[in-house]
## 1
Amino acid sequence: MAAQFMDVRQTAEYLNVSPSWLYREAVGVGLVPYRFGQGRNAKIQFKVSEVNAWVKQQRISG
């Protein structure tokens, strides 16, 4: 089964953040972007399974 990816807009919508925040902060908060292509035409995407794992790590246990 092939890995599933979301583009920046889809990922930002899923996480309820802005695309600009995602571009700026993703690596710093532990989200790993994947680049497909080169230069200005490169597409940045995020692996769905990794985004879901990251979300689970953000849970505040009380």
## 2
Amino acid sequence: MVVIGMALLALGGFWLGTRAAGHASVAVMVPEHPALPWVDVRTGDTVWGIADAVARDGRDPEALAEEIKRLNRLPDGKIRPGTRLYIPRR
């Protein structure tokens, strides 16, 4: 009798699990800033270096580096290769 009860509990748990999976929400990944220009970080890149390269149009590199960190929600200036960094528009 105990074996039958355990089997029914296992089947009930399996059934509930399949029902929950059928009602799971599906999230569509949309870029957070789709209209902004971006760069892919390469080995050796820094936020300051990227800001300096972009700031050639007369912007202040230090202020631009801070804006890049804020825009990309970076707690500090550490970035990893392969990361996409959004660059604020002028």
## 3
Amino acid sequence: MIIQPRFVEFHVHPHRRVWRVYRDGELLSLHCEKDLAVEEARRLARAHAPARMTIHAPSGRIETDHTYWPDIVAATNEDVRPGHGTFPS
């Protein structure tokens, strides 16, 4: 059985003269510039990985969509290669 991860959803929406950042439908913050809203949503998505960040245009259509996965540090250990060494205990 394959277990699908639950993604935390972050959205950046323009509304009048501000940009809104939402997490799973809940308003988190307001920004006067799009770049600041995107930066905040990206920071939050990375911190809550696995997560998706979707940026919407004023028309409501999706401009971009990004997926963030957790960093896997142990799997990149140089001593842990197939046929070389063992996993740390």
## 4
Amino acid sequence: MAGILPDTEDTAKISREKLLEKGFLFKYRTHTYTNKKGNVYGYCYDYGYLKLEQDWILVVRNKEISTRNPALDKQAVKQ
């Protein structure tokens, strides 16, 4: 998923076919997340996906995991 979602974006829309062409396997997940609207996102580590209409997939980045930078944590401890 990292190659699908640029570092500057938190979401991207891609066709199911293109994800499969890139080798993504929907059967493997680390966890799921259900939002307030009842949408269920499948996650593979810090990237999630939501099945949309007409075989489109919304790819999302888990902000809690992806925004953590261990180097910054070390700097904060030094100060």
